[in-house]
Amino acid sequence: MSTFILYGLTALLLIISFRKDRMKTRMALRKALKAIENILPEFLVVILLVGFLLALMNPTVISSLIGADSGLWGTILALLVGAVTLIPGFVAFPTAAMLLQGGAGYMQIGGFISSLMMVGVVTFPVEKRYFGTKVTLLRNGTAFVFSIIVALGIGFVMGEL
Amino acid sequence: MVLIVMGILFLFNRDLGGATFQKAGHTIWEMLFIIPPIFVLLGLLDVWVPRETMVRFMGERSGVKGVLLAFLLGSAAAGPLYGAFPVASVFMRKGVKFSNIMVFLGAWSTTKIPLILFELQSLGVRFALTRLAMNIPGILIIAWILSRIVSEDAQRAVYERNTETQS
What we know:
Chain A has helices spanning 2-20, 22-56, 59-66, 71-84, 89-101, 106-118, 124-157. By secondary structure, chain A is mainly alpha-helical.
């Protein structure tokens, strides 16, 4: 759905731009192509990693790691699993809901969701290309620490702590 | 080159089993589909929006307005976090402040509006609102910390890296 909107919007703006100024539009497209070419190698590495990880980390495996009564250890695992996996939100939330029904704690799920969304280990090559190693490590590091805090906060609010 | 990698990928997936192949395939297609429009939009942004405008709204002296704008743009975005990096790259070239770029990345990663609605629905109001209430200050604090620990020289180096890769 959002992909559809994205394409629609892009097409619309492209048409408007083309009507206003052909040369500028051509330049924009050339820039787009150039930018894709620049980042493509990194993206392909990420795609490979994602394919590999998705094959390893399916919902069954995830639920066995952060399932019922997994406690503090489960929370740590949940944070780590979230950090290394890359799954879209519309898959992540139902999976999380399923895990909750299967007996996982809110604290684990809070940590998992937070690090899943904010920390990207597999996308490291892409992020590094734009931000350099230092900033990438720092951003992911602080986001990970923050996810620990979120896990604790969720645990507290949901009455698990 | 691309074909070789895709070939390896295919072998990889076939080895690791049929059911997972579908899921991996889905995510990979999603990635491949999302990349082109993002870059085309960025190309358009690059040509049509002058640097001065971006500096005025989100640059060094943009103040609260810049932070707010970074937050809104990130939250209104569609797509996974890796889509935000090229956007941030163009922002850097247009003179957007480092801390605002970090706010933008934070918002994109975790306070996207459609995802919040989805989270409310699947994990409950209490869970989703607690996370949101922590995320909003969290994103700002992270951006502030990062703009503090990354020295000005290092920030400049990051900005220079993005003028190189694009030109």
